Amino acid sequence: MEYLGIEILRKKLEMKRRRVLKRYKYYDMHQAVEFVRRDMPPEFEWMRSVLGWCAAGVDSVADRLIVKGFRDDTPNMGGIYDRNNPDILMDSAILGALIGSCSFIYLRTDENGYPRMRVIDGSDATGVIDTDTYMLREGYAVLERDANDNPVLEAYFIPGMTMFYQYDKSRERMIAQVIQNPAKYPLLVPIIYRPDSKRPFGHSRISRACMDLTQAAMRCLMRSEVADEFFSYPQRYAIGLDSKAQQDFDTWRAAMSAFLRIDKDDDGEKPTLGQFQASSQTPYNDRLKMLAGMFAGETGLTVDDLGTPVDTPTSADAIRASHERLRLITTKAQRTFGTGFINAGYLAVSLRDGIGYDREMIQGVSVRYAPIFALDASQLGAVGDAIMKIQQAFPDYFNAERLQDLVGI
User: Fold this and answer.
1) What is the distance between the terminal CA atoms of the chain, rounded to a whole angstrom?
2) Which of 14-28, 88-102, 169-183, 185-199 has the lowest mean pLDDT?
């Protein structure tokens, strides 16, 4: 088999890295607001607007993907995961895949020869994927970077071999090391969110539409802040004020004082006082609600999830019905992520046993997840009645594992 080589994969990673880091900025709420400067008074350019809609869109799926173990796990890959902090490992892999469309599990052996796993996000790893198995044909990862974000330790993966490249501080000297392994695939396994034939490395949960709507909402918030200054202190005016009195007129005292004294002039004339109509926040609130509805439609959430509560509270059944699209999105993610975790477990078993197993050994293994939505007390009673009826018709259908998959207890 011909390989592209590490140089081409380095260039490929550099091209993809910017896109992944951009989405991490939106998730971490570090993105800058893009707006026309002439729309913002210079006195307000110091203001910054932050919005967590993209983080809510990612976390709404990530928090519902809870791996409980493996079903029909004859190779005992679950035991390997148990020794690699599965709660942190799997949650990190899922979160990275939702943000950057793909994350990776890097496998190695420790000093005792036992498999170890580590999550690498999509900004530090890439490869050439085999669309038949959704494992890599060859891979490249940056395992360590210095303070200037330059690679210090790199790894190049091909079946049966991992090559490490260590650089010194001046990056003038490089040490190469080759480590053999019995696995039939590279020890870098992709965990992919929503792959398809055109984009085998998947799609990010933070889509272009999500970023564009977030930018529009942040601009709306900043303009609302500017309008709020005029809403809090509406502009006032005085017509016919004497020119000599105007020189000593204290505008701040006129705005903040509870009582304002203005005397007549020598001719007995007095100025006419008035106040401009205060600006309203209603247009900004309406626009923000519109953007929240569009973002909710893009991500399968509700506007209530984005901090815009509905007027009337809803029941648990109504909330579940409103999240039907989110349930479908999460169910789809369970299937694709399950394939990645099983592939990583398969290679870990090969490392543990020192045997290059065929991939057919994992046929029939599946991932067990916790229920997407937790049941409340009323729903649990209804489910219990249904389980009793099913158990009467099929006495051997429910066991402890299947009951846990259904209701979470």
Assistant:
1) 49
2) 169-183
Residue with more model confidence, 343 or 319? 343
Neighbours of 66 (CB within 10 A): 16
Phi, psi of 152 (to 5 degrees): -105, -40
DSSP helix/strand/coil, 403: helix
**In this predicted model, what pLDDT tens digit does every residue of 359-401 receive, in sequence order?**
999 988 999 998 888 776 666 777 777 788 888 888 877 777 7
For residue 279, the SS3 value is coil
Tokens of 276: 């401009």
The answer to whether 329 touches 61, Cβ cutoff 8 Å, is yes
Does 68 have pLDDT greater than 60? Answer: yes
**Which residues have a Cβ under 8 Å from the Cβ of 17 and sit 6 or more positions away?**
123, 124
d(CA 207, CA 204): 6
What does the domain layout of the chain look like in residue ranges? 10-135+189-232+280-373, 236-275, 379-409
Reduced 3-state DSSP string for 329-342 = HHHHHHHHHHHHHH
What is residue 32's three-state secondary structure? coil
C-beta of residue 299 within 8 angstroms of C-beta of residue 98: no
| Residue of 121, 66, 56, 115 whose CA lies nearest to 88 | 66
**Beta partners for residue 161, in sequence order:** 158, 180
pLDDT of residue 103: 96
Task: Give the sheet arrangement for strand 115-121, strand by strand.
Answer: 115-121, 102-109, 188-192
Kindly list the distances between the CA atom of residue 309 and the CA atoms of 51, 76, 289, 300, in Å, as whole numbers in the listed order. Answer: 16, 46, 10, 16
Half-sphere CA count of 92, side-chain side, radius 13 A:
15
Which of 376, 326, 337, 407 is CA-nearest to residue 192?
A: 337
For 105-120, the pLDDT digits (tens) are: 999 999 888 999 999 9
Q: What is the mean pLDDT of residues 254-264?
A: 63
- d(C-alpha 81, C-alpha 302), whole Å: 35
Average pLDDT of span 39-51: 71
- Report yes or no: 62 and 299 within 8 Å, Cβ to Cβ: no
* Crossing angle of the two packed helices 282-299 and 53-62, in degrees rounded to 10: 30
CA–CA dist 178, 21 (Å, integer): 30
pTM: 0.84
